[in-house]
Design a protein that fits this description.
about 70 residues, 4 strands, single chain, disordered N terminus
């Protein structure tokens, strides 16, 4: 589930997102929130899925959202 700036907890909220390429998982159950005004970064080795969250948020990569009940 992707939530945008109208969400009270932050500018961007990503919850329990699964995504991958060619049948191979790049993200499994990833959840994070980026607060308004926050500078955020992702670090990790090549091929670890750092660019995938951005591609999912921009709808460049298909993803499988799951329901979140609050």
């Amino acid at each position: 589930m992707l939530e945008h700036s109208s969400h009270r907890d932050g500018a961007v909220a990503v919850r329990r997102v699964n995504a991958g390429y060619s049948g191979r998982a790049a993200l499994e159950g990833v959840t994070f929130t980026i607060e308004t005004g926050c500078l955020a970064g992702l670090v990790g080795p090549n091929g670890s899925g750092k660019s995938t969250p951005l591609k999912v948020m921009l709808h460049f990569t298909p993803f499988k959202p799951t329901a979140v009940l609050e």
